[in-house]
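Handout, page 2. Input:
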Amino acid sequence: MKKWSINIIEDGYFLVNEYQNFRFDKHIARTMLEKIQFPIIILDTEFFNHSHDEGEYEDKLYSEDQKDVVYVIQYSFAKSLKEIAYRDNTKSIKSIYIKRGHNDKTYNFQEQYSKMVTSFLSMCRNKEIKTIICAGASNDIKIINKWINDYKHLFARKSLNMAFYNKEKKELNANFFDIYDILENAFSFSNTTSTGEEFYNANNLPSGKQADNMIALTSCKKFYDWFESINIKAIKNEDEEIRNLCIAAYTFYSTPFEARMNFEVYRNMISVIRKVVVHCYNDVLKILIFLGFIYEFVYLPYEKNSYIKK
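Output:
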């Protein structure tokens, strides 16, 4: 995804290098993009659940009613795709996360969680957000839909524009747009790396919609792995697996006051939360870069597309 690096083979068919090419149907993509209602919030969350609990403490932060518990939210607002394509997206990403002071005897996780959810939903209400955009939305949809129904008292005087009433489920639901729909339906990629090797086991990926001998990529990670390049100055360094960070985060938030966490341990745990924030920041930034990429290929002529080699 380097600027000025992609060659046009023919309309909708592009050459990245000697071995890699992709097809893109801008008409399919445009049809999908036109479903987005603005303004939008681009979102990524991190959560923990029972799988991150190593059983050290008896009191649990999760429950049958709340199996996945969000503790970090990274987000970015936008009024249009054009805005995303032309602004400095690194300066547009904000975060909300659950805070805990060192040996704070007033700390109550559920109270902090409620404050975080209230802050997020109030912000979306006040900004009149109409669509949530994310990558792989299944968990986020479930969690945020629950928030909207549990906290619907927040919308008694001013409605939440991104929510609608689901008649089948008889509940409020958020209006989501998943970028994977565009990735899987509007793109087809050669199953090759930049050195001509097989990129992925084709049996484990769907065929491309534009050509049977090509593959569809089913995640942002695969998309960026295929291109093998992204603006490394914008993406922050990550040196730990997110699962391990979530395990540590669960321990941090679930440790009772009576355990008296020493300051060195506390400082290390704060570092863990910051690393999770960085992970979510990178995921939001990748969505923003992807949306900017899509905007240029859908709405701009090739001579004005900054990814096309001149």
